[in-house]
Design a protein that fits this description.
single chain, 538 residues, alpha+beta, seven-stranded antiparallel sheet, five-stranded antiparallel sheet, 19 helices, globular
Length: 538
């Protein structure tokens, strides 16, 4: 249910002269009172408000925390959690937060690598979209509407219920929320064929800082451009997305082939770099690197080659023999299945799992981790790879991995200014470096130091000027906004250029137009810089 514009105006005017109280206790009490008193159905909204005094507060907070690094007693907690059941709940929450000085954190699936969807160092509340997760599939027109609180698994399951030959190009982790993934780009096993998730968004519904609900036509093309890759939490609350579904064959083929150093892994990874972005668009071969114990019980490095092919096994074997015979893939390595079954396969679920696992919002594991990202434009020489292997043998790398994701194909065809996501032509592959640990948060410093040293080691081998990064692999080491007060364009551009390259300028322009008071903000949100644009005549 949407609040009429006249009611929104009345609420805003009625709250205009509310004062922001000094203590967080008073702030949250006034915020909660505001929510109930200005809701059209106070009973309805009271059922979705959780404060620390509520017995369900902790379970609601912790359910969607995916990085245990932010589950310590010292992690700042929200004054209130709101889990809206309808759009009007979000509208009231935005208006009340603005008038009572609370920062908003928007949570879809809780996978933000730095916890920005549920952690803040200033008084804040969480808008948790877990209840807004409906999907509507239109097979005839190959489109769908999906709410931001849905997970990828729930979306994929809904598509498969209606069609065995339609899919959507997004991630492989079924518990990732649609809202966050789409906002930052979103890739999976189909991006070489169809581009990113954001490239296939054709409409959206967003609630802006004034509490108004806008669709593509009413928000305008600048804002619609910004929300498809400009990252979440900067422009408003996107409540639903209209997406273009893509065709897939009834049969796809997968394989996972593992090779250790003793089985020429170094040579194979080096060779992979020369074909990964050039092979058939129907073929996606990623590589996962990490330390394992060999069959002899000694530690070694293993490269796992993961493949999805949009076709049958015989055609795949022909392509592998032509493009990458060194890997030695044989028919016994391959399995034919449906596209939706490949989602379960790559999701890491046990063999024989039913499709119902895709609807389970509880992840298989929750880890304490830190991650970083890079883009590679020229193949890393074998000597460079061997330096990585040496770091993997260090004590801190027991639960570390590097994921190499091939680009090329459709990714090369889309201009880098088409959406805010700029990492397009010229990129061979994307790199995700991650390290996990089991000792608890108190051990964080040692492991974070390790991944920072790995990141430093990678410097000569990755993109530069700027050194690019993927915004969905959030990394606060790249730079942050000021906690209080305004952030200059020059300061924000330190991290903004890495995520968005030249698109950052346009994102700042859009932010300045749609949210000049910077209501939607966090450590790496797009800042409004009115004076900067005036100075440049924009």
């Amino acid at each position: 249910m949407e609040i009429p514009s006249s009611s929104l105006l009345s609420i805003s005017l009625g709250l205009l002269f509310s004062f922001v109280l000094a203590t967080s206790v008073d702030a949250y009490e006034n915020f909660v009172q505001c929510l109930t008193s200005h809701s059209q159905n106070p009973t309805s909204i009271s059922q979705v408000i959780y404060t620390p005094n509520n017995s369900s507060y902790t379970s609601v907070l912790e359910f969607s925390i995916r990085n245990l690094r932010f589950l310590s007693p010292d992690t700042p907690k929200p004054l209130v959690i709101v889990t809206p059941l309808q759009e009007s709940h979000i509208q009231v929450a935005i208006i009340c937060a603005r008038n009572h000085g609370l920062q908003i954190r928007i949570r879809s699936g809780g996978h933000d690598y730095e916890g920005l969807s549920y952690v803040s160092h200033v008084p804040f509340f969480i808008l948790d979209l877990i209840n807004l997760r409906s999907t509507s599939i239109d097979v005839e027109n190959s489109t769908a509407w999906v709410q931001s609180g849905a997970t990828l698994g729930e979306l994929y399951y809904s598509i498969a219920e209606k069609s065995k030959t339609l899919a959507f190009p997004a991630g492989m982790c079924s518990t990732v929320g649609v809202g966050g993934l789409f906002s930052g780009g979103g890739y999976g096993r189909l991006h070489r064929k169809y581009g990113l998730a954001a490239d296939n968004v054709i409409d959206a519904r967003i609630i802006n800082a004034d509490g108004r609900i806008l669709d593509r036509e009413s928000m305008g093309e600048d804002l619609f451009w910004a929300i498809r890759g400009g990252a979440g939490g900067s422009f408003g609350v996107v409540i639903a997305w209209k997406i273009k579904l893509v065709p897939v064959p009834s049969t796809v083929t997968v394989f996972t082939v593992r090779r250790t150093l003793e089985q020429n892994a170094t040579m194979l990874v080096h060779r992979w770099q020369y074909i990964a972005n050039k092979i058939d668009n129907d073929l996606n071969i990623g590589v996962d690197l990490g330390r394992v114990n060999s069959s002899e019980g000694k530690q070694t490095i293993e490269a796992s080659f993961h493949c999805l092919f949009l076709g049958g096994v015989d055609e795949l074997l022909g392509l592998m023999q032509k493009n990458f015979p060194e890997l030695g893939v044989v028919k016994e390595d391959c399995t034919e299945m449906s596209w939706i079954e490949s989602i379960v396969y790559f999701g890491g679920f046990p063999n024989g799992s039913s499709l119902d696992v895709l609807r389970d919002r509880t992840p298989l594991t929750r880890n304490t981790f830190k991650a970083k990202s890079d883009y590679v434009k020229e193949p890393i020489p074998e000597i460079g790879l061997e330096g990585i292997w040496r770091m993997f043998y260090e004590e801190e790398a027991a639960i570390a991995n590097i994921l190499l994701t091939p680009y090329g194909g459709k990714m090369d065809e889309i201009p880098e200014s088409e959406t805010p996501f700029p990492h397009r032509v010229g990129t061979i592959y994307q790199v995700q470096q991650a390290v996990g640990w089991e000792e608890g948060v108190e051990a964080s410093e040692r492991y974070i130091d390790w991944i920072r040293r790995l990141y430093s080691y990678m410097t000569p081998y990755v993109s530069n000027s700027p050194r690019e990064a993927y915004v969905n692999y959030r990394d606060l080491d790249l730079g942050i906004n000021n906690e209080k007060g305004k952030t200059s364009y020059e300061q924000a551009n330190i991290w903004g250029a890495k995520y968005f390259k030249n698109n950052f300028k346009r994102l700042v322009h859009v932010k300045t137009m749609v949210d000049p008071t910077d209501f939607f903000r966090h450590e790496q949100s797009i800042p409004p810089v009115s004076s900067w644009w005036k100075k440049r005549g924009n």
